[in-house]
Amino acid sequence: MKLKKLNLTIILLLGFGILSSCLKNEICSPLLAEPQAEFFTLQENAGIIDTIPASINFDSIYGLTLENQNLIKDALGLNTISFPLNPAEIETAFVVCAAGKKDTIRFFYEKQLLFQSVKCGVYYTYTITDIHFSTNLLKGLTLIKPEVDVNSTENIQMFY
Amino acid sequence: MSTRLKIFKCFISICLLLTTSAFAQQTNVELDSERMKKSITPIKEGKAKKQKTFFRRDIKFGWDVSNLLIGALSSSRIGVDLSIDYTLKENVFGALEFGNNRYKEQNDGIQYLAQGNYLKVGIDSKRGKAKDAFDRDIFYLGARYAFATFEQRIENYQINSSYWPSIIEDMASFKNQAHWMEAILGFKVEAMKNTYLGLGLRFKVMFLQTGNKTILPATYVPGFGKSGETIVIGFNYSMYYNLPLNYSKRNTKRAN
């Protein structure tokens, strides 16, 4: 009787193990790691410079080698923007047009390949090593978080 | 002359005796049972003699055919899984398991492949009592430390971008290692003489994975299985050949 109970327990556990391995259902989310930039203005009050979140109107933003394809066109009141880095390269440049002026921002980065799953695929995460930029309209730029992951929030602060 | 003949006869007799005893193998069941009976014969009162007990000292060579069975249903898994267990003490067996596994998965052009070797070392402890002297079925609890070294490869993978053109790469491969523990609940049934069939339920707990970070934790670890979870329940279905070795003698306490 005891042996029967034991056998039954083993079979049940085995069945549970097999079923639990079969019932796993994977849900894929988009795998895009893009650095996020937030816009600020600089205001001087009694000799102290404050950074205040700003909304910027952009005429266009496009990749330097993809002039015919805008990342953003005629966007009003933007607080943040994502700059998708070129996965085929180790540097990517964007042209930012606002208030009739153009600035070029060039990101230098290292890539790390990450495998999510066979169903969800592969993606790159990045580590920004350097940023070069012109200052026609843009007053300054700070890299606050070089690691760019799928869940990354604010990587760059851009000052206008 | 007669003295020389006597010495010669004596020498021949000793040689024959030694040769016979050296080649005598007591492997049949009847002989086993006789020896067992002798070992448990009560000692006559008043005579304090050492009581001798015997236990089988065996070595079992096993082949886990579960991967073969799974491989027959789906071509994604193939491998060779072998084991050796040896009687360390009465009811305690040292176990060594090793193998080479290969796992393949494909979806929308991307192909994942993992291949490598694993080694498991541990002990099994026989539970329960044998019904009689001929009952060699084993119900056991076991524990293993396991280590695997393997290569993971992805082929024809695509990296997408929301703005830039997607890129397709041919192949990338990564070397990884994994360490885990297993608790086993199983039994081995003697189906034919010295041939056993065994089923084991295994609770596997991954505690360390090292190596390239691209596929970490690894999708598949040889010897562990799909490693999406920290704890995995698996099973083995094995066939064993038992090689009976000499009986070991063990002195027990003096009978009162």
How many helices of chain A? The count is 1
Euclidean distance between termini CA atoms of chain B: 53 Å
Q: What order do the SSEs of chain B take from the amino end to the carboxyl end, as H and E?
A: HHEEHEEEEEEEEEE
Integer average pLDDT of chain B: 79
**Uncertain runs of chain A:** none
Biggest sheet architecture of chain A: 6 strands, antiparallel
What integer is the average pLDDT of chain A? Answer: 86
How many alpha or pi helices of chain B? Answer: 3
Largest sheet of chain B: 8 strands, antiparallel, barrel
The helix/strand series of chain A, from N terminus to C terminus, equals: HEEEEEEEEEEE
Tally of DSSP β-strands of chain A: 11
Structural class of chain B: alpha+beta
Structural class of chain A: mainly beta
Number of strands of chain B: 12
Please tag this protein with its features.
heterodimer, A: 160 residues, mainly beta, 1 helix, 11 strands, elongated, B: 256 residues, eight-stranded antiparallel beta barrel, two-stranded antiparallel sheet, 3 helices, disordered C terminus
